[in-house]
Amino acid sequence: MSSLFEGVNLVTKDQSPASPPTVTTALLFSSSWCPDCTPFVARLGAMYEEINEDEKKFEVVFVSSDRDAGSMATYMHAKHPGWLAVSYNDPNRDEFKRKFGCCAGSEAATVGVSPRKYGIPALIIMKPDGTVIKESGVKEVEGFQGGEELPESWV
């Protein structure tokens, strides 16, 4: 089975190499400088920790729109639970933005995202092989009322 993350340099919060996810995965398009991202990332983090409390049911892979690797690392340390990320210098970071049409408006032309479907924050929900389950999972995160189950539309 081919993985969406084959050949992608995934890292942990401390920038150590990470293995591709094997559970339902949310690709998070976000940045440290985005005012709308801060409350969304906090909600997603709380949801992530609650759902994964007893067993790992879903993973988040961060696709940064930060302006440099240092800002991305600082953001991950300050605001992210144990999520994975596409390494800042991996060209797949921009490839994911093009593939899913998700990025900050200020980087759309530089990255080559056209058309842009979603600004940031954006959340694409998928199976471990990369099959998209839900194109935008933002509403489910904003409406999460607690519990240990994934939202129905993410299964």
UniProtKB/TrEMBL annotation:
Pfam families: Thioredoxin_8 (PF13905)
InterPro entries: Thioredoxin-like_fold, Thioredoxin-like_sf, Thioredoxin_domain
GO biological process: negative regulation of protein ubiquitination; negative regulation of Wnt signaling pathway
GO CC, one annotated term: nucleus
Superkingdom of origin organism: Eukaryota
Gene Ontology molecular functions: thioredoxin-disulfide reductase (NADPH) activity
Residues annotated as domain Thioredoxin: 4-155
Protein's UniProt name: Thioredoxin domain-containing protein
